[in-house]
Amino acid sequence: MPDSCCAIGCTNRRGDKPGLCFYRIPSEKENPERRRLWICALRRASVPGEGKQWQPSKYTRLCSEHFIKALTFASTMKNFLSFTSQTAA
Ligand SMILES: [Zn+2]
Where do the THAP-type domain residues begin and end (predicted)? Predict the structure, then answer.
């Protein structure tokens, strides 16, 4: 079975695009903090129709497109924060 991305609205599968990577969500044991952040970022708090907290399985994969977006967002925020602190000083 090919890996497919678990993000809502994302239909990327392994082999779809050149350079696309798939990442496994860290397990509770490996890195609970990062796991929580990933679940939070995915905004899949509940499974429709089931009403319970969505939990990634060990087969859940997330494609690299979301990481590129997250990194872009983080650097934008950093620039924004340094800009505002300079303005305030
Ligand atoms: Zn994706």
Answer: 1-89
